[in-house]
Amino acid sequence: MAPLPRSVDDVINEPARVQFEVFLDQHRAALSECLAGLTEEQARRRLVPSRTTLLGLVKHATFVEKVWFDEAISCRPRSEIGIPASPDESFILEDGDTIESVRNAHLEACAASRTAAAPLGLDDLVLGNRRGPLPLRWVYLHMLRELAQHCGHADILREQIRARDAEAASAS
């Protein structure tokens, strides 16, 4: 079970590491929550030309967690980790992907990310990224940027789904 995100106001005077982790956990939780109360059809609904769906966003976030906190830290190849070779492929939904299975995989990936990063300091280098050695601080900042972007996508997609379904319900 994921820890409940603390309020960002609670960590204003905490060390940067604590602040990063609280912000990350809030964004992780927000992205997972974009699926709350939706049907499987709504979660899979495509409203844009790309493969982006709400369920696909959470599945992609699982991929991103594994890229940055498994591949980058452990230096294991993606094929060994069991993730797609490219980010675009990480949005592909399989027939067996459900809200429950994708959310559970995301929660597990987030927990594994916390465990992988725990022994490292913010200035410790992770060596398994194509860019070369990067400090954990950069990884945290990159993850915050990535999750914030996808939380914004999720907000818009969810709003569109709810609005369209409300319009359809009122028209019938």
List the helices and strands and how they pair.
Layout: H1 16-33, H2 40-44, H3 54-74, H4 78-81, H5 99-117, E1 125-126, E2 134-135, H6 136-171
Antiparallel strand pairs: 1-2
Helix pairs in contact: 1-5, 1-6, 3-5, 3-6
Q: Which tags fit this structure?
A:
single chain; 172 residues; mainly alpha; Four Helix Bundle (Hemerythrin (Met), subunit A); two-stranded antiparallel ribbon; 6 helices; 2 strands; 60% helix; 2% strand; globular; disordered N terminus
Q: What can you see in these coordinates?
A:
- This protein has 172 residues and is an all-alpha fold.
- The protein has a single domain (16-171), classed as dinb family like domain (Four Helix Bundle (Hemerythrin (Met), subunit A)).
- Helix content is 60%, strand content 2%.
- The chain has helices at 16-33, 40-44, 54-74, 78-81, 99-117, 136-171; strands at 125-126, 134-135.
- The protein has a two-stranded antiparallel sheet.
- Helix 3 (54-74) runs antiparallel to helix 6 (136-171).
- The longest helix has 36 residues, at 136-171.
- It is globular, with a radius of gyration of 17 Å.
- The chain starts with 15 loop residues before the first helix and ends with a helix.
- The relative contact order is 0.16.
- Mean pLDDT is 94; it is low at 1-5.
| Beta strand count | 2
The strands making up the biggest β-sheet line up spatially as: 1-2
Oligomer: single chain
What's the CATH H-level superfamily name?
dinb family like domain
Q: Categorize the overall geometry.
A: globular
The major β-sheet equals: 2 strands, antiparallel
